[in-house]
Design brief:
This protein is α/β, with parallel strands linked by helices. It contains five helices and twelve strands. The longest helix has 15 residues, at 11-25.
């Protein structure tokens, strides 16, 4: 298991934290994480690893779901001070967009007194773009941080997973936040405060 010695835990993490914060406050904006010299295990995008490095510490916990989850868990634990826990306790959940949506229903969504005590999903996908892509989902976003509407195309994620997130987020301020990364280090954030429509092959799922 590789310890990423080239990653600066102060300078690099601060730079990426600012980028993530900007993306979270501007849903629909496609940001680009730096192409750093790191080698995460198979099943974890570089961008998702950088999110882990920037946001995970001794005060938060995480869970990795899907293929190669044991190696991903060991890698994140080695390169952060966060502790792996069961899915229903995790602050951050790392998942591939093509895996099943069962884990969505098991995540914590906060409560009315402490809605911020909910999970954030870090989701690996193939491609995030502002231009149409064959076989992609079209997501139309509205809500805080968006003037009117934002459109993004995501390839490598199941519609059923997005639908599960939509269902959980109908009781805002309860719900979960999403951070999606692709193989090109693109980053897209969808906070639980935003409404969205998903279109795929003529089908539309409305929130």
């Amino acid at each position: 298991m590789r310890r990423e010695v080239s990653y600066d835990e102060v300078f690099d993490s601060q730079e990426q934290f600012r980028l993530i914060l900007d993306s979270m406050s501007r849903p629909g904006k496609i940001s680009v994480l730096p192409d750093m010299d790191i080698e995460p295990p198979a099943g974890l995008n570089k961008g998702s690893a950088l999110i882990a490095f920037a946001l995970l510490n001794t005060d938060v916990s995480f869970y990795a779901h899907g293929e190669n989850d044991e190696e991903i868990t060991a890698y994140i634990a080695l390169n952060t001070t966060a502790a792996p826990v069961d899915v229903h306790e995790a602050d951050f959940i790392f998942i591939n967009g093509l895996h099943d949506a069962v884990v969505i229903s098991e995540a914590k969504v906060g409560n009315l007194s402490y809605p911020e005590e909910s999970a954030t999903f870090v989701i690996d996908v193939e491609t995030i773009s502002d231009q149409p892509i064959g076989g992609a989902l079209l997501i139309k976003l509205k809500g805080p941080g968006i003037k009117s509407e934002e459109k993004v195309y995501i390839k490598g994620i199941h519609a059923v997973l997005i639908e599960a997130v939509k269902e959980l987020n109908t009781e805002f301020p309860l719900g979960i936040d999403m951070m999606l990364t692709d193989v090109h280090n693109n980053l897209l954030c969808i906070p639980r405060s935003n409404q969205f429509v998903v279109e795929h092959a003529g089908d539309t799922l409305r929130n």
